[in-house]
Amino acid sequence: MKQLYTTQEYKFRNTKKIANSYKSKRNKKYSSSKFKNKFKRPRNFIITVYAPSDFRTIDNPDECLLCFRQMRDLENINKIARKSFIEFSMEFITEIDYATISILTSISDDLKFKKINVRGTFPKNPRCLKLLIESGFLAHIVGKNNRKFPKSAVSDLIFFEKGIGVLTAKENKKISELIKNVMNHLTGVHKYCLPIKTIILEICGNSIEWSGTQNRQWLLGVQYDSEKVTFTVTDVGKGILSTLHRKFGLILKDAFMGKSDSAILAGAFDQKYGSSTQEENRNKGLPAVKTRFQDGSIKSLKVLSNNVILDFENNERTKTFQKGSPRFKGTFYQWEMTKDCIHNLNAV
Same domain, yes or no, for 119 and 165? Predict the structure, then answer.
């Protein structure tokens, strides 16, 4: 019979306990300036953050969120010749999705704003590498000799400023051209569609409302598949739940009812809670997004924010991540549109 202290579960718990105990004693013992350099990292020692083999945020959120947290952890920053960078390896991934690429692009941009570059290795898996290239991710980084990679012809990843709350003429032109490309892909007619722009601005408006990201940008991603278009909106700020203002009575009621965070976030899409600004009518955007899904204007709506992922199409995949597990600092939306969605918008 296997003894308790030889099991993998025991070893994991005991190793974690010893590590936490050592860290606590070390911080206490060497907190004075006398020992401030005692535990300095060895010179030229590089910390590498590794992506999980299944790098799909929608299908494998726990491991992906852990990876994103490690990328944003200040303790993982490397410094050489006064240059700060995160060493990130995708070498061993076998699966990746567009959600991951969108979030990865936003995190990289946020780090770049803080003068921290992201460098590393591409996937060995040819299918994953192809998806990464076609997604447009490479257009936001540079290769050897600081050369930019060519723009993708099958996807778009576009950053927009959100500081002034309205789109500039240049940004309006970007969205208008993107919408024409979407219409051409779904209907065969290269024309503008105002209802699609309204949907984008409704969702992006919510990203701005609930954000608080330091570099004041949000990312719009569009991926063209055979009979559909996938949209993503990513903001790596505070997230909806972190900025949500709830009245004191509702907080007590939710506590007594034992409501999960996923139920609370879902309630925000039913206009049950006030916005972070506490201004009237500012929270109509979230219910409007849900209405778009219910009337068939958009499909496969998913929202990831803080410790919750909402799947409006399959409630069984909606979940609140366990306490202590990694969470997403920010808000991420993903939805799809088909030719049927265009008909539901009366745009054909």
Answer: no
